[in-house]
Design goal:
The structure holds two protein chains of two kinds.
Chain A: H1 2-29, H2 34-39, H3 45-54, H4 61-73, H5 87-122, H6 127-139, H7 144-158, H8 174-208, H9 211-218, H10 223-260, H11 266-275, H12 279-307, H13 309-312
Chain B: H1 10-31, H2 64-100, H3 102-116, H4 120-130, H5 135-161, H6 165-172, H7 177-214, H8 225-232, H9 241-268
Helix pairs in contact in B: 1-2, 1-9, 2-3, 2-5, 2-7, 3-5, 4-5, 5-7, 6-7, 7-8, 7-9, 8-9
The chains are: A mainly alpha, B mainly alpha.
Chain lengths: 314, 273
């Protein structure tokens, strides 16, 4: 097991190095002159040169990359041009919106998808199974932001139960904060839940066809025990993997939903930075989110190795 | 072996029918739309469905049905090119990785792992910061997001196929490496890749709509379903239809393509015979 973990950690380190290189190449190399891009057509030659100097863009690219990477490893992602604040600090102030949103969506996804998937599998080719599959097919066909708009239309515009957007912060109390996040979390979670329902159903069906399940049934074990004890433990291994991988997608999806519901999270920070040509912020946010996704994928990989011994001996 | 009849497969038939309607709509919009999709009319702003405008009008009085028809072309174009980019790059990486093996395989797979950290939204954010937002950014960003799936699938197939008798025999007969890969391995790796391309297509359409909605993709006044929803958001209480029809167009299209992909997977999967 130790060898398996060591190999995965080495792979993670190499992957993160590639992530940082990709972000660096797109932001610092592809534009040709990032300082000119930031200053736009209005900037004077002297001002552009000063910015180039202050950003260290006159040095060789390899030196710039190593310096930037060293800073990033110590939490220094540069300084925002728009806010004149450290990018790391800006990210930390926006996380209390994006992270709870992604986690609430994950909670919604897990609590709805896994029971529904198990129900569909145990009622295979019956009305409940078909209904669940039809609903999940619609779930994966509806864009998250459209779900968000429809939820606003129904719960906010028509019923007036909740506000259509905005977030007053956690200091305003747990209740109001959660009320602001519930609709976006549902809109964000519906798509992922639909994917997870199908994965759960498929995994449970696969295990239900195994010989040991047939043997348990032949021995007269109750169906409840067959499903609860013999099937779920094995079926949930791939389900945990799918659910884990979807956590990363939820982080990315949160960027869109923040726009729909006007939530001041990481996505809105990055979109605002694009308008303001604040390259260090865009660079910092994309590096942070991509790192989170890669680390989540790594954790899922590791968890899979722990749950299924066949994986680590491959 | 039981013959599989595509037209008797309900999922496949339904998906193919919806996709056909989409293709006909997109093709028709190139030569005919009920109204000019860009023509504004202040007097006809934010109308609900009427005889003159079956899907209503937007905040500039433009006919929504015509704009939705034209938007189908945008979705299809972005979908085809994005899947093409993802498949082209991913398959090349997968072939090189699986066939050459060793440290090249290890390095390419770590690169693929890294690219997996960049969903389309994130790549688009990064590219838009450097280049102007537009359809090109959408296509590239979405295409990049598809690379890992195609690369892994191709690599898996190559690893399996390279040990098969017909490949070993072709090598024994003196076939060159490039010939072995392109003539013997690649064609046999195609069926799962075709399914992957079909299932990626609706994802590309959803991603294009999301990017246009965020202002990172297709730019106004060019019609795009996501862009229409972005514009509709400010007028939800005045004219809900403005948001309902473009969103419905996306949902029905993606539903059709998903059904087509599911059906195709069933038809090509020997286990379902």
């Amino acid at each position: 097991m130790q060898r398996y973990v060591a190999r995965r950690v080495a792979a993670l380190a190499a992957t993160l190095l590639f992530v940082s290189a990709l972000v660096f190449v797109v932001v610092r190399v592809l534009p040709g002159d990032p300082a000119a891009l930031i200053m736009g057509t209005e900037g004077s030659r002297e001002a552009t040169e000063r910015l180039r100097e202050s950003m260290g863009l006159n040095r060789p690219l390899a030196v710039q990359y190593v310096d930037w990477l060293r800073g990033a490893l110590h939490g220094d992602l540069g300084r925002s041009i728009q806010y004149d604040l450290p990018v790391g600090q800006l990210i930390v102030t926006r996380l209390p919106v994006t992270l709870p949103l992604a986690l609430l969506a994950a909670l919604f996804m897990t609590l709805t998808a896994i029971p529904l998937g198990i129900y569909a599998a145990t009622h295979h080719r019956r009305a409940g199974d078909y209904l669940t599959m039809i609903v999940s097919q619609f779930g994966i066909s509806v864009p998250q932001f459209w779900s968000g708009l429809l939820l606003i239309l129904f719960f906010s515009v028509s019923l007036g139960w909740v506000r259509s957007g905005g977030f007053d912060g956690w200091s305003a109390g747990l209740g109001p904060a959660l009320r602001s996040l519930v609709l976006p979390a549902v809109a964000l979670g519906v798509f992922q839940a639909a994917v997870l329902v199908r994965a759960t159903r498929s995994a449970v069906l696969d295990v239900l066809r195994e010989d040991y399940v047939r043997t348990a049934r032949a021995k007269g074990v109750s169906e409840r025990r067959v499903v609860g004890k013999h099937t779920l433990r094995n079926a949930l291994i791939p389900v945990v993997t799918v659910a884990g991988l979807q956590l990363g997608q939820l982080m990315a999806g949160a960027i869109v939903l923040e726009s729909v519901f006007a939530l001041p999270g990481l996505g809105r920070l990055a979109l605002g930075a694009i308008t303001a040509r604040d390259l260090p912020v865009v660079q910092g946010v994309t590096l942070f989110v991509a790192t989170c996704i890669v680390v989540i994928n790594f954790a899922v990989d590791l968890a899979y190795g722990f749950l299924d011994p066949r994986i680590r001996y491959e | 072996m039981t013959r599989r009849r595509p037209l008797r497969h309900v999922t496949f038939t339904l998906g193919a029918a919806i996709t056909l309607v989409l293709l006909v709509t997109a093709g028709l919009s190139l030569v005919y739309t009920p109204a000019d999709p860009l023509a504004m009319s202040i007097a006809a702003r934010l109308q609900g469905p009427t005889g003159a405008h079956p899907f209503g009008t937007d905040h500039f009085g433009r006919d929504l049905l015509s704009r939705i028809m034209t938007g189908a072309v945008t979705s299809l174009a972005v979908g085809v090119i994005a899947v093409g980019i993802g498949a082209g790059v991913g398959v090349s990486l997968g072939l090189a990785s699986g066939w050459v093996g060793g440290w090249i395989d290890e390095t390419l797979m770590r690169l693929v792992d890294a690219v997996q950290g960049f969903p389309a939204i994130l790549s688009a954010l990064l590219f838009t910061a450097v280049f102007s937002p537009g359809m090109f950014v959408s296509m590239v960003a979405i295409g990049i997001a598809f690379v890992p799936a195609f690369a892994r699938l191709t690599r898996g197939s190559v690893l399996e196929l390279r040990e098969r008798e017909f490949v070993v025999a072709a090598r024994a007969l003196g076939g060159g490496e490039a010939r072995l890969v392109l003539r013997h391995v690649f064609p046999n790796a195609l069926p799962p890749l075709m399914v992957q391309a079909t299932t990626s297509f609706p994802v590309a359409i959803l991603a294009e709509a999301a990017l246009a909605y965020l202002g990172l993709g297709t730019q106004p006044p060019h019609p795009s379903w996501g862009l229409m929803l972005r514009e509709a958001q400010n007028f939800l209480s005045f004219n809900p239809w403005f948001a309902v029809f473009p969103g419905g167009a996306i949902a029905v299209t993606v539903l059709g393509l998903n059904l087509l992909g599911d059906g195709l997977r069933d038809l090509l999967d020997p286990r379902t015979v």
